[in-house]
Design goal:
By secondary structure, the protein is mainly α. It is built from ten helices and four strands, in the order H-E-E-E-E-H-H-H-H-H-H-H-H-H. The protein has a two-stranded antiparallel ribbon with strand order 1-2. A two-stranded antiparallel ribbon has the order 3-4. Helix 2 crosses helix 6. The chain starts with 6 loop residues before the first helix and ends with a helix.
Amino acid sequence: MAADASPMDHVLHEVQDMHSTWVFFERFLDGKALTLPSVTIGGYTLHITKYMLLELVAAGLMLLIFIPLARRIQTGALPRGMFWNFFESILVFIRDEIARPALDDPHKHDAHFEHEALAHPEHAHAVATVEEHEGDKYLPYLWTLFFFILILNLLGLVPFLGSATASLWVTGPLALVSFVMMHGAPIYKKRGDVAGYLKGLFPHIEAPGGFVIGLLIWAIELLGTVIKSVVLSIRLYANMFAGHMVLGFFLFFIYMLGSQPGVNPFLWGSVTFLSVATAVGLSLLELFVAFLQAYVFTFLTALFMGMSLHPEH
């Protein structure tokens, strides 16, 4: 980066570096940087960015964590240790508090339980326990979505890395996958009947001009799913980007004051202490935000999928 760049440029460069060069605080480490490779396909050059690498790191960490964990769970043994209990409690929370409430058919669930309870009152509790939940079909996606976003958020708190979720080029594709799931889940439920699914979205209005009104409502309904996906993308991007920007500015105060000629050492030391203390406090807040935003994105995705699966509710 140019030496005469503004403080805003430096902070933006550190927080949201999408270039093919991975810079490691060039002002402090004498221009240390890692040049990332490029791939040319059919005359088009694809630049590998650090966010791409961080996404691969997040995927690799998930494999390292959950493959051994799945093998332990398959044995039927009780959870042991902080590591196992931590991840399993989160998985169970997503299943019981997000997937099932949002994706189960409330009418079908209540009717099935009521019928079985009346027929076999002595086994009512067992019926409620073993009953299949429609939301469990989509648990693998929701689990993967939550932990992928969470790990990317947490990697943004590690020095010299970066917050991949502070880029629309990352949150946009995540929201696009959720958009596909919003429509893909009900289409899968209808055994691939795309025409039947789209027809089911068309309201029947018994009134003059009802077809035109219904067509407008149908178009608005489809447009609404696009808007929901865009909101998902921008919400995650804005929250992560803003948090890291504020954190970067507080740390950059130290350099800005220290680079001034004839600065009072006591003043510089005081600003350094306050900036670091504030950055530590903000980092703890960012740790909470990392979990919160992963939860919000997953919850809203499940909610929007449930609205598509059960529009009557």
